[in-house]
Amino acid sequence: MSDPVSRVNTLILPFAAILILFVVLQATLFLRHALKFNRKHQLYTSAELREAVKTSAVGTIGPAFSAMVVVLSLIPIVGSVVTFMRCGVIGAADFELLNANIAVESMGLSFGDANFTEAAMTVALFGMTIASAPYFIHLLITCKPLDKAMIKASQKKRSFIPMLSMGAEMGFIGYWALEQGSASVPNTVTIIVGLFCALGVGVLAQKSNHPKLKEWTMAIAMVCGMIGGELTHLIMN
Amino acid sequence: MSQNTNTSVQESPEVIQDFNTTYSDKVHVIGRSTMVIAFFLSFLPILFLYFVMGFQLPASTYIAAAASIASMFVGMWIAEPFTWFPVIGAASLYMSYFAGNTKNIRVPVARSVQNIYNVEITTPKGQIITTIAVAVSVYVNLLLLLVVVLLGNWFIPMLPAVVLDAFNYVIPSLIGALLSFRVSKYGVLKTLRWIVPGVLIFILVQTGIAPILGRFGTTSSIAVTILIAYIVYRVNGAREDRAEQK
């Protein structure tokens, strides 16, 4: 890591801390609001909420960890404070790395250059930030009207919202599956193994006397998929 | 609205009314206010470095960087939030676009709890459990990130190469799991038919028949699938109306 990058990281540490704390604050506000509503109307028992928390925590670890290898490759380039700030806020690590490089290359520079200054690093940081900023504006404008529309639609005898949800999700996942699957044979095998493992866990949870098994669907599917993919990779090589 | 099969209370009209008014209004108060503050906080380090520390380059440099990035991501900026809104709901969407990692962490976690409790995002129960799950995922992800940033260079090299390699396959296995949620609910054929538009768009992009779609493949796939879903919805609706009239 060059001196200018290191210097910028030191200077922005207080801002990074504030931003990350604000992410935690926002999540806490929403969590509190949801729990208050649940307490009032008793939609879920405490046991059910605990299980949801466990499922969420376990389901987060795998994908979060898979991004960490990219996070580690980002640290020597843009520094640990910038990495933590950007990856903890909005960005996936590979997205941030891409945007940092685009911003720097638009100046005709690269991170390792001898003439890479603090000013260039500021532009890199700007690039990472501007890549995510439009989402904030988008949500400010559209989220509430969309929500009101969804509430209105859900009150109709026949609502389009479930099909909209299916269409949006499958339109994205279908294309994503093809992009990932076509990249390599191990990827294809992984998708298939993940799919069948998740289905298998669901069936097992239903038929056995262990319905709680369903909470581990994502984690089991991920681990089995990863093993399947890696085994395929090893066999092919 | 779908029937829930878990052991908890079913939503009464009063619950739904309270959710659709008081609860929902406050979600947007929290969401909008935090997103405005977050927007300014995101740019604050840059403004500090530029104006206070004097690390200045011409405005044209910033414009060029912004233009390069915009040309690549404008499609995603417009389409992505619309894609995930009907899957995770408003509160989770605000959190996801602030804390990041929407498609690879927040959506899988949200769909996982929705699947376990057999709830739809259009219901208060669906929204509440999704909000709780996504909030927890924000905490866990930040904690992991902190650990890796501080200690990653020490412990990650200790992991066997085969384990590190295996993490390359997390995303494909997530995709398989996400597909399984729909397959288990609707069946293989009814799920896979919704992938057909994505397949066609993918083929058009990959074969170069429609190079214009190149950068907007995902966006196009989503848009076309939603359009087809709407046509099917209207056709089924008309069919049901005719059946009722008989």
Q: Could you give a quick summary of the protein structure above?
A:
With 237 residues, chain A is mainly α.
List the helices and strands and how they pair.
The complex is a heterodimer of chains A (237) and B (246).
Chain A (H helix, E strand, L loop, with lengths): L2 H9 L1 H29 L4 H33 L1 H9 L4 H13 L12 H13 L2 H22 L6 H23 L1 H23 L9 H20 L1
Helix pairs in contact in A: 1-6, 2-4, 3-4, 3-5, 3-10, 5-6, 8-9, 9-10
Chain B lengths: L12 H40 L6 H41 L2 H16 L6 H32 L5 H6 L3 H17 L1 H5 L3 H11 L10 H29 L1
Helix pairs in contact in B: 1-2, 2-3, 2-4, 2-9, 3-4, 3-6, 8-9
Please provide the ordered H/E string of secondary-structure elements of chain B: HHHHHHHHH
Query: What value does the average pLDDT of chain B take?
Result: 86
Radius of gyration of chain A: 22 Å
Low-confidence stretches of chain A: none
Gross morphology of chain B: globular
The count of β-strands of chain A is 0
Q: Residue share in helices of chain A? A: over 70%
Terminal Cα span of chain B? 25 Å
Could you give the order of the helices and strands of chain A?
A: HHHHHHHHHH
Binned strand content of chain A = under 5%
Quaternary class: heterodimer
Largest sheet of chain A: none
Strand content of chain B: under 5%
Major sheet attributes of chain B: none
Total DSSP helices of chain B:
9
Q: Nearest-angstrom radius of gyration of chain B?
A: 22 Å
